[in-house]
Amino acid sequence: LRSIDIDPELTGNLLTKTSERIVKKLTLESLNNTTENIQTIPTNMHDSAMMICYRECLSNLSKFNGSEEYKILQFISNIERIGKMIDANENILHCMCTAKLDGEARRWYDDNMSLTQWEQLKFALLERFTRCDSSSKLFEQLKERKQKTDETITSYYDAIIKLCHEYDPSMSQKMIISWLENGIKDSLKIPI
């Protein structure tokens, strides 16, 4: 058997500190290897603040274990949102994601390590961990959701927008408006 050189940081359960080191290493490599536009390590106050915010968000991001209470769509959205803070490339998003997998999701990834590109991994995670019944449940929730008598229009709006994005992240504005109009209080509807 030949000896395989495996970086010790990439084996076993990844801790937040380890994943931060890997992400920092990849970030620096991607910044140093960029030939189209030369970038430097953050030096100004704004970039430093963004890196602090990024590290804090990454360390506070819950691990995804494949259970129902933490939805895969929410997890992926959080990864991409945190990645946007530092203009992360796909390698960094991939690394951030895999570092935060745990339990069933980690076991699944260990069996699917050929997914080396972020978009491939994202698609496969969504396919594997999106519950079949969750789409129909979300649709029913959207259909049944009405503005409560003591609920502000802002609160109702936020709830509908969240449901729409969970049901279909690429839902058109026209469809979202239709769902909003569907459940708004009659007293707020303008007669046409």
Automatic annotation (TrEMBL):
Superkingdom to which the source organism belongs: Eukaryota
Record Pfam families: Retrotrans_gag
Domain Retrotransposon gag residues, every copy: 98-185
UniProt-recorded name of the protein: Retrotransposon gag domain-containing protein
